Amino acid sequence: MHRTFLQLAALLGAVTVAFGAFGAHALKKMVSDIAVNIFETGVRYQFYHVFALALVGILYRDFPNKWMSWAGNLFMIGMLLFCGSLYVLTYSKASVKANLDWVGAITPLGGLAFIAGWICMFLGIYKSAAV
Length: 131
Prior knowledge:
Blueprint (H helix, E strand, L loop, with lengths): L1 H23 L8 H30 L3 H29 L12 H24 L1
Helix pairs in contact: 1-2, 2-3, 2-4, 3-4
């Protein structure tokens, strides 16, 4: 499992850098500053949690338990829901026809997944250390 988390962190890291470059260069010419800010928030949180996913992959070697597995999976779910919803909101602001503002309601669910992931990481270390 640790290898899978590390591989996904590496791939998602590459995607995040590409998104960041797109946001810094091309996107600024296409949307308002507010939409760019929304997009950059998604990229920033995705990058934070790419590192968190890599950390789970590293920690999983010493703490191979269900809590670490949950942590990694919740970080990926959080990236999909939190960051993904911010990317869709940015697209909605760039498109005249797309009315996808309702996607903003998904963002907090992704935030909860991030929080739960960090708690699961803590429990994965704590439960293994307590044994």
